[in-house]
Amino acid sequence: MKLPSNYTSTLQDENTAADNKSISVLIVDDEKYIRKLLADLLEAHAVFNKTAEDGKDALDMLSKQKFDVVITDINMPNMDGFSLLKNIKQTHPKTAVVVMTAYSQDYSIREALALGAEEYVSKPFQSQEVIAVIERANWRNKNKRIGAQGLSFS
């Protein structure tokens, strides 16, 4: 999907030193090296992020802090990504959700999108793909909220 030509990136260039973090992202994956890889990638782009090792840990963190985007694996112990996605959409509807999976079967992706995920990423992924997907998910979610508020002209 291509972003509109008038869209301004909310992520900082990796060469830009930014004091403020424009997007907050919660990374949820049971594999420690995936969490570290994504956290390092987002940090290099000046994106505030935290990590959780499963859905239950993520919900605990979401109860204490607001995140703009949650990027979650689908297959995890304790609480899978589908259950986490459903819960986030019910309790934190202003949070965008991106699902990622090593199993790119159409039904998993369709189910995640039907449950309200804004985007998905297939593992293995490219760094720039992850950045673009998070950016699009955040942009889509903000536009949905603006659309839901409606426009009134006096």
**What is the mean pLDDT?**
83
Look up the CATH topology: Rossmann fold
Poorly predicted tracts of residues: 1-10, 12-20
For the largest beta sheet, what order do the strands appear in spatially? 2-1-3-4-5
Shape field: globular
The portion of residues forming beta strands comes to 15-25%
Q: Helical amount among residues, as a percent range?
A: 40-55%
Secondary structure class reads alpha/beta
Rounded to an integer in angstroms, the radius of gyration calculated over CA atoms is 15 Å
| CATH superfamily label | Response regulator
Straight-line N-to-C gap = 35 Å
CATH architecture: 3-Layer(aba) Sandwich
Q: What is the C-level CATH assignment?
A: Alpha Beta
Number of domains: 1
Largest β-sheet summary: 5 strands, parallel
User: Which sequence of SSEs, written as H and E, runs from N to C?
Assistant: EHEHEHEHEH
Note the total helix count: 5
Number of strands: 5
How do the strands and helices of this protein lay out in sequence?
Blueprint: E1 24-28, H1 32-44, E2 48-52, H2 55-64, E3 69-73, H3 81-91, E4 96-101, H4 106-114, E5 119-122, H5 127-149
Parallel strand pairs: 1-2, 1-3, 3-4, 4-5
Helix pairs in contact: 2-3
Domain Response regulatory: 24-138
Pfam families: Response_reg
Organism: candidate division LCP-89 bacterium B3_LCP
